[in-house]
Amino acid sequence: MEKSRNTLLVTWDNTEMSENALLHALRIARNVDNQIRLVHIVDQADSRTSMDQITSDFQLQIEEHSRKYDFDLQGIVLTGSIFKEIASYANDSDALMVIMGTHGIKGMQKVTGSWALKVIVGSTVPFLVVQDKPKTEDRFSSIVFPIDFKAENKEKLQWAIYLGKYFDSKVYLFKSPVKDKGLVKKVNINLTFAVKFLIQNNLDYEIHTATKSSQMAKETIAFAREKNADLILITTTKNISIADYMLGATEQQIIANSSKIPVMCVNPRAAIVHMSQFMWGARSY
Fold it and tell me: In the β-sheet with 231-235, what is the strand arrangement from edge to edge?
């Protein structure tokens, strides 16, 4: 990874979900030696409190949590819409990833689309979306990596390797069961590519195949639950549309999984290093 991108951004609104996101950030930072920056978004048009007061109160929270967790936290207050400001700030900052807490899909979100997915789209750094506290403080023991026919599969592989090497994780490659000969070829190319780089980076892996491609999201969640996975690693739909929000894009279902398994989302064309850095198993981060 780029050495200048060493900060974990945590979306912060002083809720239990934010606290859960912070705990996940601490879990990663203590293993990888990252900085952590809490990001508080204020819609100034709806706020009756001055920015000076908001910033002052936020700084007190940062100091309190720094003492509580014995970790030197940073913080920044941004004004605007969370749907734009988080991704924009992450793109232009030293962020390695954004960690965000969510309740999943509830109420009207089932109709209007996943709140979390709307925040994620447009970011050039990945989002780690969490619904609960970390199961352990140690590491990501198992990572589920769905594989289909799309070229974007390769863009998330760097993150499986990055996390796998730091946390000594096992990667479960979960293959889409397509039948069309052309798609079968593309799936197998992606699978071969992934296996090659996992071997070159000395990471343990297993290959499994889903039963129905039409239910890939549902089967991915069930498989991750079966393997007691610490993380599901996905790419978001390229050129996502309002129809995807309304009808439920595959990743939307996975992000809001009822098992509350953390999900890392990588947007297409969002890779920040070239895969050649992992060609010979070099630790480039």
Answer: 74-79, 35-42, 7-11, 95-101, 127-130, 263-266, 231-235, 142-147, 170-175, 205-209
